[in-house]
Write a structure and sequence with these properties.
The protein is an alpha/beta fold and about 550 residues long. It is about 40% helix and about 15% strand.
């Protein structure tokens, strides 16, 4: 007898439909074979499922068993198939009888019994704890996508990528998903489907046999979860640095990459960590995107079914290329993807390997990373704000003017021109005088900066939709960042004197557009262009 249930394969952060077929044959020696490009964890599923079934009161057939995971040319990994394989086996050996088979068997039984039921049949039908429910009331396995890892005693353990499974079920028009109880809240952030959860294999078997119901998790309100999210660091904690805070406000308002240059201990790291607090809150779709990335590697915040705050990733300067941009034999997202819709903070930027830094070009320009392998390629989203920090010299002290010296030039030479071009804002973070550090007066706080950022984002949204100024390009940039004659003359002089590239020219226009929006000005005035040119600090040092 052949049975079939439905699950999924995780390709990057996307879920692909997978059919689990089980065949029990009386021909041949007893043997269990799993086919369909399974990895070691999937091959071991047979032993886990066999033991879990035995400890739940069911038995693995002493026959030739073939389990097929389709599509056969797609690699399968992880323990996500344990529960689907168990249900497929119990369907194949008749322990679970789907509605269509139940109706057929009852018709055959009625024909064999004749017009008068036997005493045994009457007794079986009168026993509610063992008698099956009507076929129409039984759940149809074809309507559900199933996933879960089995413990040896039949308990269900959580798996990765459940939110992608729920989105796949909605896209395919299925009734819902059946997942371990630990994954229920994560799946419930997707509306339009039923989320049923179980803690044990026996519960799922009873559900499909119509003997019990599974707990249904109501859809979670993502907007409410996002609204109560808080940030830990306030810009008011950073003494002085008002010029740097102004640059951070511009960066947040237009989603611009920013590089802070200054000696150690001036607050660069603290400002980078405070930056998410002034960014607009995640939207529903953005939260789902970020949650899918973290769910795919099992890194969701403890006790939270969805990522509610913009992520901040701070990799060490010894990070490798696969760690930063993603990779591996089975591609996994790197730090740039884990910072999607948030902030990637690279402290001591010149200390990173040059090869690692050059790998940032694609995500900074295109907003995604493509990992190519022999069996195909996978794309991970990486729409992020890059916040970087560096010292003027390798010794850690000095000012930006020190970049013109020999030692500073060698230190700066570790950063390639194309990478510097992709960073919109270069700002100096100078040493804070003692009177400001010891003074009682706090500087600009996050609430004030957030208000300016949100007002600016609203102006951008009304003018150009969801695309922030930092992502404008081509005709959209020409249309929304139009300069007057004096502004064009100023940029022309800057390009001649500073040797700005065409990419840097576009960066200046985008920053000027954001500065104008902060001033609630629809027109880009010369003072906006002048401020934007000032933020090309490293172009003046080369």
């Amino acid at each position: 007898m052949i049975s079939r249930v439905h699950s999924f394969v995780l390709q990057g952060i996307d879920a692909v439909a997978c059919e689990i077929e089980a065949d029990i044959s009386a021909i041949g020696m007893p043997k269990t074979t799993i086919v369909g490009l399974p990895d070691a964890a999937v091959k071991e599923a047979a032993e886990r499922v066999r033991t879990a079934m035995h400890n739940t009161g069911h038995f693995w057939p002493q026959s030739r068993v073939t389990i097929n995971l389709a599509p056969a040319d797609l690699r399968k990994e992880g323990p996500v198939f344990d529960l689907p394989v168990a249900i497929a086996m119990l369907l194949a050996d008749g322990t679970i009888t789907p509605p269509a088979q139940t109706a057929s068997l009852r018709a055959e039984l009625a024909a064999a019994r004749g017009p008068e039921p036997t005493a045994e049949a009457t007794l079986a039908e009168s026993a509610p704890e063992t008698a099956p429910c009507e076929p129409s009331a039984r759940p149809d396995p074809d309507e559900w996508l199933i996933a879960g890892e089995l413990a040896l005693d039949g308990r269900l353990r959580p798996v990765r990528g459940v939110i992608s499974l729920a989105l796949l079920a909605r896209r395919l028009g299925r009734r819902g998903v059946i997942v371990p109880s630990s994954n229920a809240a994560e799946a419930a952030v997707v509306d339009g489907i039923e989320v049923r959860s179980a803690g044990h294999l026996a519960e799922v078997v009873g559900f499909f046999n119509g003997l019990r119901d599974l707990e249904r998790t109501p859809t979670l309100d993502i907007e409410t979860l996002i609204a109560v999210a808080t940030t830990e660091i306030d810009f008011a904690d950073v003494r002085g640095q008002e010029a740097a805070k102004r640059a951070m406000t511009i960066a947040a308002a237009g989603s611009h990459n920013i590089l802070m240059i200054g000696p150690a201990g001036t607050g660069k790291t603290m400002m980078a960590r405070a930056l998410p607090g002034i960014l607009p809150p995640l939207g529903r779709e953005e939260a789902l995107e970020v949650t899918r990335i973290y769910s795919s590697i099992g890194a969701l915040p403890p006790g939270s079914p969805v990522v509610t705050r913009r992520p901040v990733r701070t990799p060490h300067h010894t990070a490798s290329v696969p760690a930063l941009v993603g990779g591996g034999s089975i591609p996994r997202p790197g730090e740039v993807s884990l910072a999607h819709r948030g902030v990637l903070f690279l402290d001591e930027l010149p200390e990173f390997s040059r090869f690692v830094l050059e790998s940032l070009r694609e995500p900074l320009e295109d907003g995604h990373v493509t990992i190519a392998r022999a069996h195909g390629s996978i794309r991970f989203p990486a729409r992020l704000m890059l916040v970087a920090a560096m010292n003027p010299t390798q010794q850690g002290g000095g000012r930006v003017a020190d970049l013109a010296r020999d030692g500073g030039d060698r230190y700066l030479a570790r950063l390639s021109g194309p990478l510097v071009d992709r960073i919109d804002i270069h700002v100096e973070v100078a040493t804070v005088p003692f009177r400001q550090l010891a003074g009682a007066r706090a500087g600009t706080d996050s609430a004030t900066m957030r208000g300016r950022v949100l007002a600016t984002r609203r102006r951008q949204s009304g003018r150009q939709g969801r695309t922030p100024n930092g992502e404008l390009s081509g005709r959209a940039l020409d249309r929304h960042a139009r300069l007057d004659e004096e502004g064009r003359r100023m940029i022309g002089s800057a390009m001649t004197e500073l040797g700005l590239s065409a990419r840097a020219y576009d960066k200046v226009r985008r920053i000027a557009r954001t500065v104008a929006d902060l001033d609630a000005s629809e027109e880009i005035r010369p003072e906006h262009v002048a401020e934007a040119i000032q933020y090309r600090l490293l172009d003046r040092s080369r």
